[in-house]
Every structure is written in C-alpha cells, then in structure tokens.
C-alpha cells in the first residue's frame, strides 16, 4: 500500500517508536522469536478505535497517530459541552432532537373496546449523540446522531475513524443530523432510547421507500390506460399522448411517464405513538412507515402538530431535551392515554345497526 509523503510525516512518531516495544504490548505472545512486525498507520488507527479484547490499550505512540486528535481516554472537547441550562423546561417553541430507529415490521394492537389498530414496530439500537454544532449558513444548531455500533474495523474508512475518535464515540453504521433550538442541544455521548418520546404524542417518520424498479405509467402514476377491447393494438397499458403537435411542439417538462419507481426519501407526518416497550426499546407507531423491514427510519416530533401545540397529549411530562433516567423502575409497556371519549363505546352505533 502506497503512503503519500504528508502521511509519512504524520505517522513519523509511530515509526520512530521501537517496534519490539509496540508489538510486545499489543500482542505479547506473537512473534516472540525474531524481529517484531511493523505497525502500519492504518492498523494503528484501527487499533485505537477498535481495541482488541484481552489486549491492553495501545501504547502512547499509537495515541498520536494524527496530531491534534485527543486520545480515547480524554474527555470530549469543551465545544461539545452541554449548551443549555441545567434544568431546561419544554415549551411549544422548543424543537427537540430526533433519533434513528430500525423498522422491524407491522403488527396490530387491540384496545379495551375491541378496536384493532395497525401499528409499525420501530426499534432503537445503540442510538447516541455524536456531536453538536452551530451551522452558520442556516443559523441553527445541529445535533448529529448515530445508530447501530460497527464492530468490524474494515468496514469503516479512515476519515470516519478519525471523526468518531475525535469525539470519543464508538463508530456507528448510520449517521444523521437534526435541527434543534439552542435549549435542546445535547452533549456528545448522550444515549437516546425509546423513552425519548411520550406515549400518545405524534411523530414524523422519514425513510427511503421500497424500490420497485422500472415500471409503467399504470402502476407508477395510476393511469387508466387505453381501451382493453376495440380500437387498440399492443398499447393497452401505454400512457397515450405525451403532448401537443405544433404548439409548443415538444414534451413539457415533468410529464408523467414510465420510469424507475420507489427508492426515494419520503416523510409520513402525524403518526401517533400507541405504545412504548422500555425493555426492548420498541416504539409502536399507528399506521404505515415508508421503506422495507430492517431499514433505518428518522423519527422526530411532529412539526405540524407543534404549530398548534398538539404534539404531546394534554398534561404529559415531556422529557426535555431527552430522557436521562433509568428504565428499571418503569413498567415494560407504556400505553397511550385513552381519548377524551374513553368511557364511550366507539362501536355502539355499529352494534345498534346490527341489532336492527
């Protein structure tokens, strides 16, 4: 593997360290006889981010792989400290951070009146705040969130390894950012769980839709198609005319035609959180969520409901900026509060009609 000149200068400290000392500390049993192996810069950086089980922490020569980066034993920089008060309170103007969940599939929940509610099961796995920053271009605070730990070092590129090592966080498979208000900024390393949301609140779910490949206009745009009987030959499922003749004499941009279907980012708004499983970190959302199973979903507070102050149920205690307590003393399942007409049978009218 070729190493550029500036990379050689960056890792001069590692190469200057005696190889025998480095090899003996990393693996005392390997190469006991003969010269010790050379620790390449890429291997040193991966050992710093992915410590091997049963082996001691890398030697100081490995901790200075890249100048200007703190070691894994040092706390995060002061710029990543919590910028909000000690006990912030939620308000309708506040915008909290979201989290990244994994779609596990769909299920159904029966309520006390026997009404079946279809739900989508979302699981929060290793969700953690990577860093917080101020975006000068849009003038807003951004919180970077990662999910699902990556335990295989060869799947993470060196720039990403440096990014995670700079903030002393385990490398993640999925990264995304959320816009927040200054009082909702989270410090680096904050754990995000399913308790970040409140049962009964409304959320927005964003994900990439399932790809369908190249499809015709009848499936892609719900066209009616041409006649299936007389007067049509070999064009029953075609889109028909695509424009005028002389004026303007061209096909207008944006005309619906056959093409690739699906595979686009879509957002479903105002989905109600029906139930939360505190033990398995599951969020049960009423309705459908875009994308196939085992794919990532961005979940955040409903923005349109927030304009009217209806995101959270009445009298709910909002975990602001996030939930930091323990879930050991909480029940495993937290259900959404019943609607205002909870004592009224929603199927009473249907039952009366059946009796008639």
Describe it.
It is built from 9 helices and 12 strands. By secondary structure, it is an alpha+beta fold. The strands form 3 sheets. It has a 6-stranded antiparallel β-barrel. A hairpin with a 4-residue loop joins β3 and β4 (140-149). Mean pLDDT is 81; it is low at 10-37 and 55-85.
Question: What is the H/E string?
Answer: HHHHHEEEEHEEEHEEEEHEH
Kindly report the CATH topology of the domain at 99-210 and 263-339. Answer: Elongation Factor Tu (Ef-tu), domain 3
Global shape: globular
Tally of extended strands? 12
List the total number of helices. 9
Secondary structural class: alpha+beta
Biased composition (Basic and acidic residues): 341-356
GO molecular function, one term: structural constituent of ribosome
Family: Belongs to the universal ribosomal protein uL3 family.
GO biological process, one term: translation
């Amino acid at each position: 593997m070729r190493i550029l000149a500036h990379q050689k200068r960056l890792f001069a400290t590692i190469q200057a360290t005696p190889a025998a000392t480095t090899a003996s500390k990393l693996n005392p049993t390997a190469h006991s006889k003969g010269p010790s192996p050379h620790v390449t810069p890429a291997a040193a950086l991966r050992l710093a981010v992915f410590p091997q089980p049963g082996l001691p922490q890398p030697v100081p020569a490995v901790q200075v792989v890249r100048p200007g980066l703190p070691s894994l034993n040092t706390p995060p920089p002061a710029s990543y400290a919590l910028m909000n008060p000690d006990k912030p309170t939620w308000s309708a103007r506040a915008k909290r951070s979201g989290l990244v969940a994994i779609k596990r599939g769909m299920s159904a929940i029966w309520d006390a009146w026997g009404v079946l509610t279809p739900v989508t099961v979302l699981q929060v796995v290793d969700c953690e705040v990577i860093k917080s920053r101020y975006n000068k271009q849009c003038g807003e605070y951004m919180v970077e969130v990662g999910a699902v730990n990556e335990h295989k070092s060869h799947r993470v590129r060196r720039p990403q390894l440096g990014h995670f090592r700079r903030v002393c966080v385990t490398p993640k498979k999925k990264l995304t950012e959320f816009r927040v208000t200054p009082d909702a900024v989270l410090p680096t390393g904050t754990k995000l769980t399913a308790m970040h949301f409140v049962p009964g609140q409304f959320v927005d779910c964003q994900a990439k839709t399932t790809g369908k490949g190249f499809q015709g206009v009848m499936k892609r745009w719900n066209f009616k198609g041409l006649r299936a009987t007389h007067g049509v030959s070999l064009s029953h499922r075609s889109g028909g005319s695509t424009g005028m003749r002389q004026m303007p004499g061209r096909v207008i941009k944006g005309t619906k035609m056959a093409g690739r279907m699906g595979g686009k980012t879509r957002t479903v708004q105002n989905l109600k959180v029906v139930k939360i499983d505190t033990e398995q970190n599951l969020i049960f959302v009423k309705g459908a969520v875009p994308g196939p199973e085992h794919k990532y979903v961005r979940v955040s507070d409903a923005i349109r409901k927030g304009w009217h102050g209806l995101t959270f149920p009445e009298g709910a205690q909002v975990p602001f900026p996030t939930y930091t307590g323990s879930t050991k003393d909480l029940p495993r399942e937290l259900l959404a509060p019943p609607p205002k007409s909870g004592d009224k049978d929603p199927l009473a009218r249907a039952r009366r009609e059946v009796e008639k």
